[in-house]
Amino acid sequence: MNIKVTALLASCIVISSLSYTWLLHQPITFLTLINNIFLISLAFTIVGASLFVVQGGLFNGIAYSFKRFFARVTKNGAYAFELDGDLEFVHAPSYTFTYPLLLAGILGCSATAILSIVFYL
After folding, report:
1. Which are the contacts of 52, defined by CB distance < 8 A and separation ≥ 6?
2. Residue 35 CB: number of other CB atoms within 10 A?
3. Do 78 and 28 lie in a common domain?
4. In a designed cystine with 51, which of 43, 67, 72, 98 is the match (CB 3.0 to 4.6 A)?
5. Cα 109 to the center of its chain, rounded Å
6. Do 65 and 30 fall into the same domain?
7. CA–CA dist 102, 49 (Å, integer)
8. Cα(first)–Cα(last) distance of the chain, in Å?
9. Are residues 19 and 48 in the same domain?
10. How far is it, in rounded angstroms, from Cα 103 to Cα 48?
11. Alpha helices in 24-57 (DSSP H)
12. What does the buried/exposed string (b/e) look like for 110-121 if buried means 16 or more CB atoms within 10 Å of the residue's CB?
């Protein structure tokens, strides 16, 4: 994992949280900062987890099944299937920023959860 990219994404979370607070004309308090950092970190975590699932190849079988189905059902697909005879398996895309995005989101969510428990319990 690239630590520089993770640190850059973590700083983007904090900067976007501050700009989100400023754009909504909210008072900049510790509670609003924790809430906004948590929301943006949660969005980063969801995007990173989605990329991780796609990169892992969960949908490869589904894409191959659709490709095979449409090759058998449509006239052009049936003609192409008769010529080639074999369909190639769909390979999952690979992203370089999946793990730093996921790590920065998880660190932001966990840090804000711990801060909210420590300061507001």
Report:
1. 98, 99, 102
2. 16
3. no
4. 98
5. 14
6. no
7. 6
8. 35
9. yes
10. 8
11. 30-56
12. eebeebeeeeee
Whether the model clears a pTM of 0.85, i.e. scores above it, the answer is: no
Averaged pLDDT in 10-residue chunks for the chain of 121 residues: 88 93 90 94 95 84 73 67 62 84 95 92 81
pLDDT of residue 69: 75
Phi, psi of 64 (to 5 degrees): -65, -40
> Do the Cβ atoms of 92 and 56 come closer than 8 Å?
yes
What's the domain range around 68?
58-91
Estimate the crossing angle of helix 30-56 against helix 98-120, to 10 degrees: 150
Place of tokens 């589904």: 62
